[in-house]
Amino acid sequence: MSKKTEPQTSSNRSSAGTVVTDTNHADNNGSAVHSNARSSALDLKQNINNSAMLTHKRRGDSLLAEDEREELMMAQRSESTSDAIRESLQGSLASETMGTLSGADKWNFILLVVLYLLQGIPVGLTFGSIPFLLKAKMSYSQIGIFSLAHYPYSMKFLWSPIVDAVYNKDLGRRKSWIVPIQLMTGLMFFWLGMNIEDWMAQDQIAVGTLTVVFFILIFFCATQDIAVDGWALTLLSKENLSYASTAQTIGLNTGYFLSFTVFLAFNSSEFSNKYFRTIPQDYGLVPLGGYLKFWAMMYLAITLWLVLMKKEGRSHSEEDDIGIKAVYKIILKIIRLPHMKSFMIVLLTAKIGFIANDAVTALKLLEKGFSKEDLALAVLIDFPFQIIFGYYAVRWSSGSRPLKPWLWAFFAHLACCVIAMLLVWGFPSDGVVTTSYFYMVLITTVATSFTSTVAFVSMGAFMTVIADPVIGGTYMTLLNTLSNFGGTWPRFFVLEAVDYFTVSTCSVIDSKGKEFSCTAEPGKTLCTDLGGECILRQDGYYLVSSMCVLIGGLLLIFYIAPTIRYLESLNPKKWKLDQK
Q1: pTM, entire model
Q2: What single-letter DSSP state applies at residue 286?
Q3: 12-39+50-79+103-312+324-502+539-575 domain in CATH 3.30.420.40?
Q4: What percent of the chain has pLDDT over 90?
């Protein structure tokens, strides 16, 4: 089964000549339970950012004009872009040594963890919990519309140069963005907490309004991520920079799981009644509105502390400030490289085979009767396996052919998608989830997590090899954005297709004497109220999922695998900007 999303996420940061690159999962698509939660990313999954620190030195002669070369070197000092939820795995695991944290570094490390935790709260809600809560009243096509709220996390590179270059000198380069962004996020959380319960209680939820609100929240979250990524490089001392990835892993994971796993469990009346109540109630212990208002207060309190208590040291001289145009010029030059177009097609199409599993399988299990708390439990159990798999994936991808594990993982991931579809098809007809069925779901989830982790790390290793060290940050930003977007753009169309190909009608007619559809939840409710029964004539999930796997398999055999082997055989110099 497949994850994130994604939240899905890749970080590419540089400061004062140090380029921090990460190799996003780009949506770490690892488990059915995570599928809506990591697009990207995440898959959010996704999903935590890899912060392997690579100090790139300029090498070789370039055919770029001298003024452009100067802009490139300046741009190298200040990139900060990141994407969705699992990318810190490789950064954390690849760090062989770490310095001993001093007293000041310890407090700055804690600050980074808190800032990344705040970032994980809206990501966990948008990529994880909200789609599950919406499924009770929305069709797949409506959830597809809501999935558009994921887009800012996959497109951060479009405005990251602006975040890096525009700031108030008195407040500080990073606080100039972090303070107002967190202030606006806190205020929006509070306003949302005051209204969202009423919105969710309506028979017809305004999906457009929800999508716009959460799109703005994720835009704020993505912008805060860019600024915090850059600040991490100056908050910690040079010898302890490797701890930035650890802070990211702890913070983003904690925030994500609080908003997805923990919140979903405590919002469930079944979980609350089973473990915390003697008298059953029809509502959970933690309402969505109350949860949002609590984190609104936390956002505002932490932001106030930043303004009053935390000073941002000057770490950039005036010469470090760059023109925004420089980074965009670099991106255009990279895209025009001879072999880049083929690689871009691979990145944008490679996840088509998995996207139905990523976007729909968990929701389909929920629809059939798999409980939200069981889904949350599967997420929790799966996470430590990701860490273990990441360690071995780094070792397997360190040879002369880093993409060989990626190709094998691609085949295995497609197989896991087929197994996941069969599990949905074989859901117990009486709706009772047995222990053996839960274990089958869990094993498939962990197996898919293994394939996605191997693919993520392997692709990241290849990107690191081919990225031009002169402009490594921008190079990695572009590649990871393309990879993330490859798992984001098909999601909307797949969710729409599931509803389009689903045929379900009520056994009785409506008040106008007409047959009506039971595809969406309101139609099912109306049918029940009229004393009828929904008759499923065709489930679009199986058709769409099968088509995705078929298209993914054909792409793999006839285009992706041959192209990957060819690109892998090229001399790394062919990927440099000075090679024509």
Answers
A1: 0.76
A2: S
A3: no
A4: 34
